[in-house]
Amino acid sequence: MIYKDTNEILPKILKRSDDYEEKYLSTVLSIIDDVKKNGDSALKIYSKKFDNNPDENLEVTKKEMISAYDNIDEQLKLDLQLAKKNIEEYHKNQLEKSWFIEKEGTILGQKITPLDKVGVYVPGGKASYPSTVLMNVIPAKVAGVKEVIVVTPAKDGKISEIVLAACYIAGVDKIFKIGGAQAIAALSYGTETIPKVDKIVGPGNIYVALAKKLVFGRVDIDMIAGPSEILIIADDSANPEYVAADMLSQAEHDELASSITITDSPNLAKEIEKYLNIHLKSLPKKDIAEKSLKQYGGVIVVKNINEAVELSNSIAPEHLELAVKNPFELLPKIKHAGAIFLGHYTPEAMGDYFAGPNHTLPTGGTARFSSPLGTYDFFKRSSIISYTRDSFLKQRENVYRLAKSEDLDAHALSVKVRG
Amino acid sequence: MIYKDTNEILPKILKRSDDYEEKYLSTVLSIIDDVKKNGDSALKIYSKKFDNNPDENLEVTKKEMISAYDNIDEQLKLDLQLAKKNIEEYHKNQLEKSWFIEKEGTILGQKITPLDKVGVYVPGGKASYPSTVLMNVIPAKVAGVKEVIVVTPAKDGKISEIVLAACYIAGVDKIFKIGGAQAIAALSYGTETIPKVDKIVGPGNIYVALAKKLVFGRVDIDMIAGPSEILIIADDSANPEYVAADMLSQAEHDELASSITITDSPNLAKEIEKYLNIHLKSLPKKDIAEKSLKQYGGVIVVKNINEAVELSNSIAPEHLELAVKNPFELLPKIKHAGAIFLGHYTPEAMGDYFAGPNHTLPTGGTARFSSPLGTYDFFKRSSIISYTRDSFLKQRENVYRLAKSEDLDAHALSVKVRG
């Protein structure tokens, strides 16, 4: 579909999923409660019920991990290792150092400490991807997290070998065969077997997302990920076949995925449509991609590229491709986007797997206020304050009066008693 | 109370509030729904009902702000301005810069952009503090946020003059007389009068906290703050009167507040108890402080300071004072704490108002995984990826195989079509 009136397509893109889903709430609350009370025995019951997992042993052994690694294709092994290296290198740039400043006897600063334990949810079934493992585990390891624990549902007791191999490559410390809201509950409260963690990250279905939302506060979580999206700003320098392929790469993920191109070239728009139809035919995930494109996809023709940028900023897309002649000239105008792919030779897929930046990105307009998953998600800061007697005495009167203005007399007392 | 067996006191401290409160859930959900559907008219009904606010006009005028500022005590004005300067200076250290790295034609990087609009919740009534305004608004302004909007309930239509003056000093752009879950809903969805914001920060009661939790995802929020706490590690160099005053300064906040001292000196423990009793007597908030100390306070005597540090790390206190001879020697051993106050002349009160670091800190053990409110809460990051044709061609085979391994054929197609 080619759109000229953006009001036809915009509301559809921005309304793909509801933010809190009351109808699942009671189910998820009762699962959390059950795991909190009954620990492992509740987990085993849910694993049988939801995953048909007959296994009594919830933990994957180191031996199983290594043997999965040994079994995968040698070339794939090298590709995953190279991806790991790139992801590691990029995320090292996000490390922060503790700092101190001193002024007239007062020392102020900030101390950086990695989290102790992190849980990573890896979906099972069709959406069980090695890249999920690498992208979630490596930033935690770079930050210095000592223990990274993967949970993943084991349909019929089995976990994908590539996922296990990716866990081995990424340096995962423990893997448990549990999924759904019950896995989130186990990581939040701890059970006989599952350690309580400090933060839970990773994608999941609506039950997983809702459970994460409910335990937030007790443990930290990453953003609640919605359906994926790509927005491509293209001028007449763009190759319509490239653009069409990139749109399809998003559309094949999910019927709810959204693939939008905004261009100032009506001719390019027509050509993109043509290539979409050509490549759709031979795509194994044709049905999914077709539905996604029909509902949430399209090419929007605007008057000029500035208008395209404005529209893009109002959508705040997860993935933004700048398929234009001078992409770096547009960059300063981009306000909201999870990841920005510049130029005609940077398809989103390069970032999904390999380039180094994280593929866990804010969706559904949340790029307005949130960031890609990063090393900064796995450390925290503590403020540092130190006064000498002299510097304290110089400033205590100000604090005394401020405390008094808030009727907090013991606060005032605490500066008054010191001499 | 002096404790020698930490098992008596620890479970009490860590269990002061429940993490999600089912009994308030339906009320809060229905308020959010109402505001979402009925906008300003719902807000006016709630303001009348909960705050006895007869005012039809929800917005505070610039004139009202300035006149409040003019009316407050001149000395207090200077104190607030000095506090503002310190807070601003400290938070400038938390600014981050965009960065790029180039390697063999591939450019990777991270772009920093401030949020557009931020909402700050300021409680009404007894807990309506100017310091809340400064500590929440200034980091947003330092980050470069264009529009900072304060919401605060107006009991009988009135807002404290000091709070309004603090808003003026901090550079707040708009103030609205609304509170409770309805204020959070208004900031999340927008109404005829209230702008939809990107992030909501600031303390509030259980309704406010629960509403923030429910809208999280649609907008960003800061941490859910629980009751406040202080932990003091003291050796025999500590002055028991100082320590007692600092404990009281936490206890006067809230019956649920927790004030704990851990010391290796039984004698100091006794002396602290003595001074607690002396100063309690004359404290205006005696009743609150006494209840807090009785339920969640105490002095724990341990064998040595290392044991005190371990215990402190297991509690992960919001405020940690190191009232010891060589506080900087202990610092590397501290793993989890919101803010760390070093030495005998750094009472918590100095940080609550004035020193510069933020007083919005992780409570209830969440310092294990979260940080003080900071400038970093008001900007977000976008990943940058750019390949040249050459660098793309060198790496596309790896990406092609990785995409194929995940059965994502359109991803593979998008790297294959480019030549």
Automatic annotation (TrEMBL), chains A, B:
Residue numbers binding substrate: 228, 250, 253, 319, 352, 406, 411
Binding residues annotated for NAD(+), in chain numbering: 121, 182, 205
Reaction catalysed by this enzyme: L-histidinol + 2 NAD(+) + H2O = L-histidine + 2 NADH + 3 H(+)
Entry's Gene Ontology cellular component terms: cytosol
Enzyme Commission number, as recorded: 1.1.1.23
Key word rRNA processing present: no
Alphabetized CDD domains for the sequence: Histidinol_dh
Cofactor(s) required, per the database record: Zn(2+)
Binding sites annotated in the UniProt record for Zn(2+): 250, 253, 352, 411
GO biological process: L-histidine biosynthetic process
Keyword Cytoplasm: no
Residues annotated as the enzyme's active site: 318 (proton acceptor), 319 (proton acceptor)
PROSITE patterns: HISOL_DEHYDROGENASE
Keywords: Amino-acid biosynthesis, Histidine biosynthesis, Metal-binding, NAD, Oxidoreductase, Zinc
Function field: Catalyzes the sequential NAD-dependent oxidations of L-histidinol to L-histidinaldehyde and then to L-histidine.
Cited NCBIfam families: hisD (TIGR00069)
Homology family: Belongs to the histidinol dehydrogenase family.
PANTHER family in UniProt: HISTIDINE BIOSYNTHESIS TRIFUNCTIONAL PROTEIN, HISTIDINOL DEHYDROGENASE HDH
UniProt name for this protein: Histidinol dehydrogenase
Gene, per the UniProt record: hisD
